[in-house]
Every structure is written in structure tokens, then in C-alpha cells.
Amino acid sequence: MSVLVVFSALGGALADRLFVIRPLDKLVPRPNGENSQELKKEQEIVPEENVVIEVAKKVGSSVVTVEILKKTQVPNFYVGPLGFEIPGNQEETTVKQDIGSGFIVDKGGLVVTNKHVVSDTAASYKIITKDDKEYQVVNIYRDPINDLAILKINPVEGGEEFVAVEMGDSDKLEVGQYVIAIGTALGQFRHTVTQGVISGLGRGVMAGDSLGGSVEQLDNIIQTDAAINLGNSGGPLLNSLGQVVGVSVAVADNAQNIGFAIPINIIKESLANFKETGEFNRAMFGVRYRMIEKETALLNDVPEGAYVVEVVIDSAADKAGMKKGDILMSLDGTKVGSIKGGLAGFIAKKKVGEKVTVKLWRDQKELEVKVTLEASQ
To answer: Residue 272 — φ and ψ, nearest 5°?
Structure first.
């Protein structure tokens, strides 16, 4: 009897391994449905891949490509009597090129991108969606402070609405957090999806790329190792829930795996103001600065804070008497170093006409000044 049991067990094992015959699965299902082909397929995709796939599906229809259309003169050559080409009359032609990315933020047709992507005021622009539908940009509103622009496109024909992205909270970002970038890489490969982590927060960078054609200094920027190539500018940086937490803005020259994005909370403030006033009527403080960390402050016997590199002439800071070399210690009683988003983030939440109490360090003394914020120029 025992021999019969052993042979039965061996026979079942052989049937299972060699012939994939599993009679017991019919009688006693494996725990957690392990005999389910659907579950097996799901297990072949690791959790990180699932996240990227789901985010790409969720946000894909809201990510767009920005195309520039610019008229240019092309010389028309003809062959002279000696066989040489001689330039004749110039012909006008329209050049089209994918130069950046963007994402839809309002179902009525508002698109966010970088200001440097649409910096050429003599050109016209189109928006191209994932399904290759094209929409003419009818208005461009450029942010005078940040490298941001809002593009207005006409509503979809037939009353259909655009699909807007969901915005996250960039103040809650942590170094090491998982992020995904989508954009038109190198101005050629539309809807390129890359992944990585937040590598740093509060960076200061020169923003721009060779496709956009302009560069400017930006503060309080997100650093990521998610591949952000030329042409990604203006595209969304997303968290694992598919919420936009930043706007891709720049690539570090001569470096790999270093890209930057503008925190989405700055865009949310701009959008709220834009929808209320129809323009980027932003409050402006009027200084360029760099942060002094604790170690540097101790070594130089100065307080921590924001070291003023330049005061903009006729700005609110200039009218309040601030000078190059001042160290801003606190704003409205809060230490500058502990303000989420730094000085730029603090001012972004203020309105034109508001007063800010600034405690600063000058000539080994503490001073207090009142700065009345003015509209950006």
C-alpha cells in the first residue's frame, strides 16, 4: 500500500513538471489564486513598472508638443555663364520644428510651458497632442519673473473639452522621491517617458536650452536624475500618483543624469493670478541672491540667510534702501533659511502692495526695513 502511495505521488509530480497537468488545481485551487493566468501576467511586471505605465496612461493625453513656425528668407541660386552658382532673389519659406513640451492645465485650452520655449515674438506656434491633433496658439502670456508661459489654444471642435493634468504639492517633495518626466526629447521624439528620483531641492540654475534660445537665472529649482533632454523643456515632472510636481526647465551642461524643474506650486500661484486678472501681475521683491549655509556663516562670522548679489534698480528692494552685500536674515519674522521654497517661494505667495518686514545684516549690525512689494516689470 505504501509503495502505491509513493508511486502515485511521483506520478503526480512528473505530470505537473513534465506535462503541465495539474489535476489537483481543479479540486483544490492554489492559495491566492496562483493558478490564475491573469495574476501570472501581473506578477511579470514589477511595481515600479506598473507605476510608470499607469502614470503615462493617465497623463499622456494632457502632455503636448510645442511647434514653432517661422518665416525665413532662403537664397535662390542659379548657374552663371562660367558654371558657378550665383545667388539670385531670395524666396520666403516657413520653417517648422518641434522645440519644446507643455501640458494642459485647463479644459478650456490653457497650456503651461517654459517662457524660453516661446521667446521668439516674431514666430507663431502650434500645440500638437499625443494623437497628432494640431491647435494654433492664439495668445501667449509670458511670466516676467519665472521661466514660465501660458499658451491659449482654441477649444476643441464639437464642444469636446481638453483633458487637464492634476497638480500636486511641490512643498511636500522629499529627496529620493520617485518621479517621472514626459516630453519631446531632442525636439524629435514626442511623448518620451523617463523615470528617476528627486536628487536635490532648492537649487539655483541658469535655465534654457539650444532649442528655446534664451537663458535666465532661476532659484528654488528641483534637481532630478530622470532624463530631461533638450526639447523636454516645459513638460511635466510627475509623482507616482500622476500629479504634476514640477515643470521641466533645463539640462546641466557637460553632465549626465542632472535635470531641473520649476516647482509646481509657483505655477499654481501664477495660474490663480492669471485667471483672476488675465495677466501675470506678480509681486516683485527686486534682488538676486545666493544662500549662505550654516557652515559658511560660521566660518565668516556672519548670520545665515540670503546674500544679496544684486539689487534691481527702481525695484521695491531698491526703494526700501537695500544694498548689494546685505544678508537677509528673516522675512516677516521667519528665518529665510527655514522658509519652504526660499525667498522666491515666499514672494510668490504675496500680492502687489503687501508690505514685508525684512531683518537684515549690514556692516556687522542688524537692521529692519519695510519693503512694499511692487508689480513685476
So the answer is: -60, -45
82 pLDDT band, cuts 50/70/90, is: low
CATH of the domain at 148: 2.40.10.10
3-state secondary structure of 234: coil
Domain contains 189: yes
Q: Which amino acid does the sequence have at 221? A: I
**164 secondary structure, DSSP code:** P
DSSP code string of 104-132: EEETTTEEEE-GGGG--TTSEEEEE-TT-
Mind listing the pLDDT tens digit for each residue in 4-25?
444 455 555 545 544 445 555 5
Bridge-based pairing state of the strands 327-331 and 305-311:
antiparallel
Give the domain-ending residue among 107, 135, 159.
159
Q: Which one has a higher pLDDT value, 351 or 243?
A: 243
Out of 62, 98, 101, 147, which one is annotated catalytic?
Answer: 147
- Per-residue pLDDT tens digits for 187-246: 788 999 998 999 888 776 655 454 444 445 566 788 888 888 788 889 999 999 999 999
Q: Is 50 a domain residue? A: no
Active-site residue, selected from the candidate residues 170, 233, 270, 315: 233
Distance CA 9, CA 339 (A): 69
326, 296: one domain: yes
Q: How many domains does the chain have?
A: 4
- Domain end call among 159, 176, 199: 159
Cell of 24: 489537483
For residues 160 and 107, what is the distance between their CA atoms, to the nearest angstrom?
A: 9
State how far Cα 98 lies from the chain centre: 18
Work out the average pLDDT over 168-191.
Answer: 89
- 237: containing domain: 167-277
**Could you confirm whether 116 is annotated as catalytic?**
yes
What global pTM score does this model have? 0.65
Residue tagged active-site, from 62, 98, 101, 116? 116
